[in-house]
Design brief:
Strands 1-2-4-3-5-6-7-8 form an eight-stranded mixed beta sheet, sandwiched between helices. The protein has one domain: Alpha/Beta hydrolase fold, catalytic domain (Rossmann fold). Helices cover 39% and strands 17% of the residues. The chain has 248 residues and is of the alpha/beta class. Helix 1 packs across helix 9 and helix 4 crosses helix 5. It comes from Rhodovulum sulfidophilum.
Length: 248
Amino acid sequence: MDPASPSALWTARAERLRADDPVPVVMADPDIAPRGTVLLVHGRNGAPDQLQIAVIAEAYLARGWRVVAPELPHSIALPASGPAERLTMNGLRRAAAEVMGWTRARWPEAPLALAGHSLGGFAIGHLGAEIGTAHHLLAASPVLSGPRLLAARVAMGPPAVAALEREVPLLRAEMEAEDAAPALARVSCPLGVITGAEDGIVPLSDARAYFNAAPDGRFFGALPGQNHCPSGPDVAAMLDVALAALGA
């Protein structure tokens, strides 16, 4: 893949999963018969074309997995997805759950893995508990809870908190009550976590807490010099090791 053109990954598109509120999905198939399907969930202001998502997709494709990546609501990176200020943690999780249901119905016999970045990690933590039969979970820079996400903003200083309240007021209002840890405790499949050692949004201790919340953690890796959106050759190499550890 040309690093400047991650859109070259996506070879198919299913525009409408709901008649009343479309959730576009992009898909990519490996060169061989797929070993399974991975639902790849972006975070706040994310999109499948962003480098931190594309590097995960490439890692799965290289191992023979089909990739399904939704364009979830209320992302600045997706102008047709609706107002960014309406984003909520629960809303993103529910939209991802609908895409998971669609994916399972379309390929009912295929093993299903869940991967997510940032708030996408929060979403797959819940989905992994709901599905009961996931092949594995892979989380990149994952948000464990609203209180931890808020604490990281507080550590950045008052302007960072003010920006959060201004840009996503509904998300800020729900933060104190949102926690994926109880759901992760019910996840029975293997879990892997990768993160940037310099991440200020999900500090290393928070990524480690996410990993420790699940009973079957198999791989944890933090790369020096990487921040909240890890990408590049070193990340690709770490993903290959992570997926091997997860049996992908």
